[in-house]
Amino acid sequence: MNEIVAINQRTWREKIASYKKRPISFLILLTVILAMAITMGAFLFLALYILIKGIPHLTPSLFAWEYNTENVSMFPAIINTLLMTGLSLLISVPIGIGAAIYLVEYAKKGNKIVGLVRITAETLTGIPSIIYGLFGMLFFVTTLKWKLSLLSGAFTLAIMVLPVIMRTTEEALLAVPDSYRFGSFGLGAGKLRTVFKIVLPSAIPGILSGVILSIGRIVGETAALIYTAGSIAKIPNSVFDSTRTLSVHMYSLSKEGLYTGQAYATAVVLLVLVLLINFASEMLAKKLSRLSGGL
Amino acid sequence: MIKRKEKGMELIFLIAATVSIISVLLICIFLLINGLPAMGEIGIVKFLLGKTWRPGNEIFGILPMILGSIYVTAGALLVGVPIGILTAIFMARFCPKKLYAVLKPCISLMAGIPSVVYGFFGLSVLVPFTRELFGGDGNSILTASILLGLMILPTIISVSESAIRTVPDKYYQGSLALGATHERSVFLTIVPAAKSGILAGVILGLGRAIGETMAVIMVAGNQPRMPKGILAGARTLTANIVSEMGYASGLHREALIATGVVLFVFILLINLIFSIIKGKTV
Prior knowledge:
The complex is a heterodimer of chains A (295) and B (282).
Chain A (H helix, E strand, L loop, with lengths): L11 H10 L1 H32 L20 H32 L5 H15 L2 H15 L6 H26 L2 H9 L4 H30 L2 H4 L19 H11 L3 H35 L1
Helix pairs in contact in A: 2-11, 3-6, 3-8, 3-10, 4-6, 5-6, 6-8, 7-8, 8-11, 10-11
Chain B lengths: L1 H41 L1 H6 L3 E2 L4 E2 L2 H32 L2 H16 L2 H20 L6 H25 L3 H9 L4 H12 L1 H17 L2 H6 L17 H9 L4 H32 L1
Antiparallel strand pairs in B: 1-2
Helix pairs in contact in B: 1-12, 3-6, 3-9, 4-6, 5-6, 6-9, 7-8, 9-12, 11-12
């Protein structure tokens, strides 16, 4: 049994012999593996359970145009989720990118505003969604009198995802090498032209990853929307109509307790959405590392 | 002309940058304006330390909810922290590459699952499970703790894992050279060196657990009374807001907003601790 083993590698037999001499090390190894198994077990159980329970309930009628008590179609909720995501991003992406451009390209070192922006952005990241919901209800719904509406919900969510977009854009802008900027200046371009034609285009994959992260948060959000966008399961006629996104739809179904099967089906759709979003962000991350590797 | 355009755009960028400052200010102002008067009217001590919450009789004491939040969060940490840190150690130092390529996406998927889905899973699996195993009606602090513990796992795992990975390899090699086993080296040199990063992950998880709303409301029972043991139901601060805001008015509504203020103060404290610890690591 004298196989040749690579340097610094041990055979199973040697490993087992070593563990026999040091039982505590073996115990540690087992605990660590056990922890991993619990984590993965819980995740797989949750995912499989929902898929197995939900897929049989994914009937075509659940995707009917209208929602009513006989057929709790999730189609309006899907459209509303798309509208809500689109509108929130429309508000937060330009602001987030603008803010990041200011922080990276314009602010001078020791600028007091920069510190303040960083602290507040970090604070916003830590605030739980129910607080956003309360604020949205007090500010957009009551004070600005936008009522329970798509608009109130979108603005609330826009503030919620703003720090995500700001941070990822900032990182992306910082990753653009200074030689690009100098090259552009050297050719006689102004600051603004340099930012828009040179720096931003090279930062786009990084910005997109922030946008994808934000989409994930918006799609999964419930607590911030119940008292800002309401829960009317209809496709809205205007931005001032109440809407119900998929997550809120699922919450309403499970709260009513009458439509368990349909709630499972909605959970499946949500899971698939999350899967797609994660897949997209992973693809992007791969592309990103290839890009930066090429530089 | 060009100069004016340059200046104008700079101003626009500056305004965009101040949006986050303005947002935080607005959130603080609106919560305080709407919440503080109720606290004053009820009496701060009565509000914070009152043991009864009976909006019908205008009795607003949120001590049961504060304790509910603390118990559920502590339970979540008891479940999530050991498993999370050990999983992070496995992923950073024990995991074969091929397994890692499967594990990592699963963890990030776990982080992306919406809290209603977790809540629904808790409602249909964990609640009956604890009811069968431990008795009670299943909607309990225990169930909420297990569910929240699961939910904060990805946060703790990813932060701890990157903290462990930043520890210089020298530490590990030095320990190996002195004759320690792989396990001993990891646990006695690498993990202690990464402890402030790991702590930051735990605090981040704590913030998530205390702020979690939808999942908790679906499994914790939501009875607004002093918690009586881990198999009894409890109501958290977050659940208090969501479950009654729909129909509340007058002082009741303001008391709910004041509940939000209390939660907000908790979160700000946690954020502060987090940034202090993070400042130490960098």
